[in-house]
C-alpha cells in the first residue's frame, strides 16, 4: 500500500468512525428515553433522576454527580456501541478495526468529559461560546426528549430531535 493510499484509507476510516460513533451514541441515548427500552433504567433512573430538569442541571459543587452501579447512564450506550464495533470488525481488517476502536474510545472520552462539564457548577470550558451554547441545548434535553448529542447535533437534525437553544447562558 502506497503512502497516499494509506493516508486516504486512514482518513476514510477516521471519518467513518466519527459518524458511526456519534450515530451509536445518539441512538443509544435516544433509545434509553423510550418506555420499552431495557436501558431506560440506567439513564432515566440515574442521570435524569439526579438532574430532572433544566432548573436542576447543575451540581452545587465543581464535580459532576453520576448515578452509581445500575443507574450510571453511560451503560445505556453500551449495546449500540457494541453493535457499531462488531459491524466495523466484520467489514474492516483487524488493524483498521483497532484504529476504529481507538478513535471510538477517544470520542467517547471527549463526549463524556464535555457532558460532565455541562453539569458542573464551575466548568473550565465556560469561557468558550460553543460550550455555553451546547450547555443551553443540553438543558433543553433535561426538559423534554430533544438534543440527544453533546455538541455535534448532526444526528439530532437528521432524525428531527434537534431543538435550538432560545437563551444564551451568561451565569
Condensed summary:
By secondary structure, the protein is mostly helical. It has helices spanning 3-32, 40-50, 78-91, 94-118, 129-141, 154-158. The protein has one domain (3-158).
Characterise the protein shown here.
The protein has 171 residues and is an all-alpha fold. The protein has one domain (3-158). Helix content is 57%, strand content 0%. It contains 6 helices and no strands. α1 (3-32) packs antiparallel against α3 and α1 (3-32) crosses α4 (94-118). The longest helix has 30 residues, at 3-32. 26% of the residues are buried. The model has no long low-confidence stretch (mean pLDDT 87).
From the N-terminal CA to the C-terminal CA, the straight-line distance is: 54 Å
Task: Report the helical percentage.
Answer: 55-70%
Radius of gyration: 17 Å
Main beta sheet: strand number and arrangement? none
What's the number of structural domains?
A: 1
Residue windows where pLDDT falls under 50 for at least 5 positions: none
Strand content: under 5%
> What would you call the structural class?
mainly alpha
Report the count of strand segments. Answer: 0
Outline type: globular
The number of distinct helices, counting runs of at least 4 residues, comes to 6
Mean pLDDT: 87
Amino acid at each position: 500500500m502506497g503512502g497516499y493510499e494509506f493516508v486516504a484509507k486512514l482518513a476514510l476510516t477516521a471519518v467513518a468512525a466519527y459518524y458511526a460513533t456519534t450515530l451509536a451514541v445518539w441512538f443509544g441515548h435516544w433509545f434509553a428515553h423510550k418506555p420499552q427500552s431495557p436501558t431506560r433504567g440506567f439513564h432515566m433512573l440515574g442521570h435524569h433522576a439526579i438532574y430532572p430538569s433544566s432548573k436542576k442541571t447543575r451540581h452545587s459543587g465543581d464535580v459532576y454527580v453520576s448515578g452509581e452501579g445500575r443507574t450510571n447512564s453511560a451503560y445505556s450506550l453500551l449495546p449500540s456501541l457494541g453493535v457499531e464495533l462488531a459491524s466495523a470488525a466484520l467489514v474492516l481488517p483487524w488493524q483498521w478495526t483497532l484504529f476504529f476502536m481507538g478513535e471510538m474510545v477517544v470520542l467517547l472520552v471527549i463526549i463524556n468529559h464535555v457532558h460532565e462539564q455541562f453539569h458542573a457548577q464551575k466548568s473550565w470550558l465556560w469561557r468558550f461560546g460553543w460550550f455555553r451554547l451546547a450547555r443551553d441545548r443540553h438543558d433543553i434535553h433535561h426538559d423534554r426528549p430533544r438534543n440527544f448529542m453533546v455538541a455535534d447535533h448532526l444526528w439530532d437534525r437528521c432524525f428531527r430531535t434537534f431543538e435550538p437553544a432560545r437563551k444564551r447562558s451568561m451565569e
